[in-house]
Design goal:
Number of strands: 7
Oligomer: single chain
Largest sheet: 7 strands, mixed
Number of domains: 1
CATH architecture: 3-Layer(aba) Sandwich
CATH topology: Rossmann fold
Number of helices: 7
Amino acid sequence: MPVRILSPGSATPRGVFLDIHGGGFYLDSAARGDARNQQLADALGIVVVSVDYRLAPEHPWPAAPRDCEAAALWLVDQAGSRFGTRRLAVGGSSAGATLAMTTVLRLRDRGIADAFAGSVLQFGTYDLSGLTPAGRLIADEYFIQAYAGHATDRTDADISPVYADLRDLPPTLMLVGTADVLLEDNLAMAARLSAAGNDVDLRVYPEAPHGFTSAATGMAKAALHDVESWLRTRCSP
């Protein structure tokens, strides 16, 4: 499974950020994030590792969560010797945010979620079952059938993490726009994370659509600045 490693200009990285790209579980690649990830690496003095997880429909669930978990476990084991730091964080946008959440849940179930100092979740989709009010808004989308159409129960937490036991997870920063069809999904996930006793920072950006942080707008710039500021505190020794 390939990963892309983007290093900062500084000699000793302050931390490592595991980036999981979006694309509805069936599109895009880690390389598409190189420019933004290099900017993040240079701004914070961290290494950014992005993972090319297997894509649906050729590789439906659970291939992608397994690949992301494998990348996270590799960092837990190798970050200290390879990069000189064990300060880890994880994040993603859209489907990547979903996979970031399932990754920390898998690590939590292994008893090592505290290896990651935080999660950054940008406009993720957390119910693929179509049973929640938010999930029904996207129930007919192609990506759900491609990724999890074969699953007998799409309320499985590894598919729809809004149904998970959310206790004992790392601090989480969540970003979503008011014009995003996934707004309700994100509000529900933030509420459940908070109710489970986790540290959650939810930031909602006015009139911002799905995927807004990839656009060249003032709102995107502000949101990405928020991400950098939040990560800076998590990646400090």
